[in-house]
């Protein structure tokens, strides 16, 4: 455990010094603040709770930005050290390969979590001023917590990516493709199939089930399904995702998308030749 803690601490410090990651964290804070003011503006005219509208907007922001931030942190965690020769030196110490992977996962998740909590926390302070009497603060807190979890999912996926190629450039390209597939292309393909199917096979229940195969959609489902005002602010999408089955399915999806890639990363790195 001591070795894991030391590795996690090192990864945390390296992450918060990464200029690309710091830039993305700053963008998260700026966009969150912008959506706090601009995204909640229509609530007064349509009678929807201001905090609920903002939570829906921030959910979409998290889906696009947090996976990218996580992959920026983790795509070269293993292959980068192998290229620099520091991994061979590290493994001369009494540390197992699985401890290296788990330590990097914990450290990078904590770093990403700190950036996420800071960005959404600053936005939350302004929301506290704009909507102090809202009854939907638990939905906002669930958003912050699940956003940290979403980051952990993509850190684990990034570690799998980092263990596959021999060069950092190939890992970067693969990370971008993975982000594009999960955040953009999967939903486009699913919606295209839904339109072509004309509800003959893909009904609402099948559609929601297919969403669970994508961690980004599972995250969105979890945050839009749990609170009535947030479902109302999300419109028909939120209503279709309502119910305890949607919540439990989203949680199970996020759990498996965390544990399975992390286990796969350990397996790949254990068999990788340095």
Automatic annotation (TrEMBL):
TM stretches of this protein: 20-39, 51-75, 110-131, 137-161, 173-196, 245-269
GO molecular function: ABC-type transporter activity
The keyword Transmembrane helix is annotated on this UniProt entry: yes
Pfam families associated with the record: ABC2_membrane_2
PANTHER family: ABC TRANSPORTER PERMEASE, ABC TRANSPORTER PERMEASE PROTEIN NOSY-RELATED
Keyword annotations from UniProtKB, A to Z: Membrane, Transmembrane, Transmembrane helix
Lineage: Bacteria, Pseudomonadati, Pseudomonadota, Alphaproteobacteria, Rhodospirillales
Name of the molecule in the record: Membrane protein
């Amino acid at each position: 455990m001591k070795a894991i803690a030391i590795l996690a601490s090192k990864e945390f410090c390296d992450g918060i010094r990464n200029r690309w990651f710091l830039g993305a964290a700053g963008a998260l804070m700026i966009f969150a603040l912008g959506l706090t003011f601009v995204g909640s503006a229509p609530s007064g005219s349509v009678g929807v709770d201001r905090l609920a509208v903002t939570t829906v907007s921030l959910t979409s922001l998290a889906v696009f930005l947090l996976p990218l931030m996580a992959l920026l942190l983790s795509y070269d965690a293993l292959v980068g050290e192998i290229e620099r020769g520091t991994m061979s030196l590290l493994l001369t110490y009494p540390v197992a390969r699985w401890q290296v992977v788990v330590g990097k996962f914990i450290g990078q998740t904590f770093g990403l979590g700190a950036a996420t909590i800071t960005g959404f926390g600053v936005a939350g302070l302004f929301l506290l001023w704009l909507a102090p009497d809202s009854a939907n603060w638990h939905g906002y807190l669930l958003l912050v917590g699940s956003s940290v979890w979403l980051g952990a999912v993509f850190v684990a996926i990034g570690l799998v990516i980092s263990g596959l190629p021999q060069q950092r450039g190939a890992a970067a390209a693969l990370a971008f493709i993975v982000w594009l597939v999960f955040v953009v292309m999967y939903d486009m393909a699913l919606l295209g199939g839904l339109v072509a199917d004309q509800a003959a096979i893909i009904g609402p229940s099948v559609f929601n089930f297919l969403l669970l195969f994508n961690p980004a959609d599972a995250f969105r489902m979890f945050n839009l399904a749990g609170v009535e005002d947030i479902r109302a602010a999300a419109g028909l999408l939120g209503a279709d995702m309502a119910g305890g089955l949607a919540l439990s399915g989203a949680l199970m999806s996020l759990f498996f998308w965390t544990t399975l890639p992390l286990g796969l990363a350990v397996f790949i790195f254990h068999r990788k030749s340095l």
